[in-house]
Known about the structure:
Elements: E1 17-20, E2 24-29, H1 47-55, E3 59-60, E4 69-75, H2 78-89, E5 94-102, E6 109-113, E7 116-118, E8 126-128, E9 136-145, E10 150-157, H3 164-171, H4 185-189, E11 196-204, E12 211-215
Parallel strand pairs: 4-11
Antiparallel strand pairs: 1-2, 2-4, 3-4, 5-10, 5-11, 6-9, 7-8, 9-10, 11-12
Amino acid sequence: MTPRIFSYRPPAKELDIIFEDEAYLAINKPSGLLSNPGRDPITHDCALTRIQTRFGQVHLVHRLDCDTSGVLVFAKTKAAESALKKQLQYREVRKTYEALVWGQLERPEGQIDWAIGPNPDDRPLQRIDSAGKSALTEYRLIQANVEQHWSRLSLAPQTGRTHQLRVHLNALGHPILGDAFYAHPDALAMRPRLCLHALTFSFLHFATGHRLTLTAPIDF
């Protein structure tokens, strides 16, 4: 197995704050920025450290892949963090994504119900694995561009496995455009970035008990 070389050049653009109150803060994370730091010192520049530099001690509640853009939520207090993490644990948070994928789908909507596990020959990649963890993705066609051979999909993951949307769509024969991990060369070359965006994040607010739905605009 040839180890993957980690190349990280985070975008310099200022963070786009899409929501803030006494309990939570959310940004529209740009593609190419890590959610939280890793072991390598170059990963110190990430969404979490940028937010903490500006707002003080906040807590990362969930993560997005480095190349995925969209809604990323932070908690301002430990109580708010705990409340939201419990909702994530019990799958009470509703999330939707949009993606541009290779080709045209046979069915305009459906479910992808294939278990996922780590690929031992190419870490940190994942693969379809009947012995892996259950993974369920709902999809719906928004737009089909036959001439340019791509489709825009709305995606609703019902589970939160690593690289779930990327692995499911690639296994379906419709890799996400610009996906350097999973897309074949033609799909990779169609876009300069991974065309996957966390569009909405909906949860019950810790303080009010009312459902709060956060939305981040898409740039592809």
